[in-house]
Structure formats: structure tokens, C-alpha cells
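Support reply, case 0932

Customer input (verbatim):
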Amino acid sequence: MSQELINAVGRRKSAVARVYLKDGSGQIIVNGKPMETYFPLEIFQYVVNQPLSVTETLANFDIKINLAGGGVKGQAEAARLGISRCLIQHNPELRPALKKEGFLTRDARVVERKKPGQPGARKKFQFSKR
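Our regenerated output:
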């Protein structure tokens, strides 16, 4: 598959990542900025690069990511899922390696809602017998 654009969506918590992948030199642009600027902490850069590291395609693609919603961690993990899905569309043979690492599973854990008459989702106000 030569110069066509592959796109996929990744989600985590309330973050949504729209990922566009094309052949290139390994450049990753997030919301119009280089990934190193958007994710200054190395742990989040590592999370975004994980699918490329596992499949050893780090310098093969240019990736453009549009992120919306959520926090930094949710956005990084949403981008990871989106990149993994793009790689599979490009080359289905990469699927077993990505699946083994768990990069194809949408992590559905989200914050539980706060209930009325309580200070939080599970926490209760202090009980007083008298």
C-alpha cells in the first residue's frame, strides 16, 4: 500500500484520538505540534510510540493525531489505540504482536458517577447514631 492515508479512531476515558498514518520518516504531529512539545513527559511519548516499537516500524510512517477531551494520560492511551488500529489496516500481519501486548483492547474504564446524598461515587457521609 503506497502513499494513501490510513485513519482510525482511538478512545480512552473521555479522550478521543483521530489518527492519520502515511508512509514517511517517523514524524509524529499531535494537534499541529511535534509530539515532544505536546507530550513533554517522556512516559507519555513512550506510550504513544509503543505500537511502533513493538512492530519495529518506528521510522516508517508519518503520523498526524488530532486529540480532544480528557487528560494527558487518557489522550496518550487513546493515541496508542488509534495508531495500533492504523498499523493493522496497513499490514494485517502485525495484529498478533499488537494483540499480545494488549494495544487493541479499548480500555472501557471510566469514572463512576457521583450519587445523590453522598459526597462521591462510593463514599458516604459520616454516620451518626445519635
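We compared this against your earlier run and they match. Two observations from our side: The chain has four helices and five strands. The beta strands are 6-12, 15-23, 28-30, 33-34, 61-68. Please reopen the case if you see a mismatch on your end.
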